[in-house]
């Protein structure tokens, strides 16, 4: 099989580029002096190769060819071969990964993807909407009531805040069934199909318990932070869950893995159906270009993998809906958290405005017609 | 309970320090506008507090008080509250964590610790020695033979390279029993008690299988990269393993968590008995001060937790043994990988030199006497 092509950006003088590139290829494979390797097969088939070196002003980009066999087609070793030891070298950044034909299909990719999420929520020809249950520490009744308000207003997805997990004030086993009941009741009243995505958190044993509770309660979606539970667990837990998963970027800011690689390609490869990321101009410093690249990684071609739904977030508000739709199109879920809750008594009304604005916007091509009709 | 005190270093103008500190306290707790919170109890007991702000030349240090209840005494939420969202803010670094009395004991800490590792290997009054099975991609027979050579030379611990996992060329179920047998035979011949620490890698299911295979083979130690398997899994898998674990820093270079916090305090809290880290002056850029601070975090006071063994590594060689012992003292394991293998035919002899040099060095106080006698 061809090599996995990983591009690293190294902040070092160009005069060092060849030596640094070769050291990196060794570090990310056999991790020992090549002179001490006597087996020709290992030098040929196992040691990573330097495919190219491209100099820039203050750094150079090195493409390293990693032998797929060294990853064992398994995510913890894939992460290890891509960014295990060199994560400890602050001057090295992983900026791109390209898999050879036949590699990505060893991983599940999104089980539902964008179409599955549209089937689930009935949202057709428009972007999806998402609101958040906050703040952590609230009584379960608060979350249930808030979920009812959002669902009555027709939001597509209601997610737990990622910090609302299994704490004593709102343990998973009390909170999740209560919130799901509130959403079910609202759905019966409106004829809608709002979905609740609770936070799954903890070790494998806790996650298995949470999956059982969620199944019993009729939960139809899950929120998981892959870097908090661990990448291999994120992958494996989905086999039990059987519902679409939304990936949250908490703890994923290793920053020296370019966000489109980690949040886009890797999270999707491991099965994320929807991918939350901090949109530009909010509380986080990602540029618009980075955000568009994340969306591309989530939805673009990736051998056999279903597209995942990009979810721009992190301090968004109603007045950015049109701009976000223009950036990301309709295969997107718009997530507004504090921006809705700041309305306080007017929460229900502001949530309806959010939902209506996204519905009216519809498919970008139709927008002119819809707006003149609205 | 008192708050968890987390110190963040923020690279921003001092004029913004108050606003940035308050935004961070909100981000790392309720993550919504405080004005939209009506429940006084949440404002008082759940919202993180700004404890202090200390300005420096180009940055300021902010101490945030995190309510322990928001972590649910559970590692994925602890990581989330400490560095979940702010991991996505490149100007924010987590530089210190202090737990209030009674908090750390909710986590197991090292089950064996330094004394347990001394009991296991019989290494008393001196530093421990460690060598590595490399390169990945070699046949199982190569690893078994190499392990036999190291064990005959009297190395205390033989670890798999962290890239030697469960790949097709050397699957865990063939490699680990074969290597353990080679080590057992050498131990019978020498009367020594060399220990083999194979790499555990993959998702929870694979790890459970590996634990069973290792138990059946009589394996007495494990090598795990907590960031590759995920922090909660690292914690939970130890209940099954029942042997000391050595933590490897692969994929842990989030860099904006200070290494003494992540590799030292957190890995130890989760049970690491020995902690591998890249020593200064090797292939990685950690400073001597950082390395000494990691060793301090591994061995220093941490409420009720056993001390963990620091394992400086990453391009070490025989000629640095004395210097490392002088830096770290005898409660240390010296790990030399490529530096031994580079001896090729003279591997056995160089390994013996390594072992002898550490044995002779013995306890620093005794060194003069021993050396004059040797």
Describe this structure in words.
The structure is a homodimer of 374-residue chains. With 374 residues, chain A is α/β, with parallel strands linked by helices. Chain A has helices at residues 17-27, 40-45, 75-83, 113-121, 140-152, 172-190, 204-217, 226-229, 231-241, 259-269, 288-299, 321-328, 338-341, 347-361, 367-373; strands at residues 4-10, 49-55, 60-66, 92-98, 128-133, 157-160, 195-197, 222-224, 245-247, 274-278, 309-313, 333-336. In chain A, the strands form 3 sheets. The first copy, chain A, has a 4-stranded antiparallel beta sheet with strand order 2-3-1-4. In chain A, strands 7-6-5-12 form a 4-stranded parallel beta sheet, sandwiched between helices. In chain A, helix 10 links the parallel strand 9 (245-247) and strand 10 (274-278). The interface between A and B is large, with 87 and 87 residues.
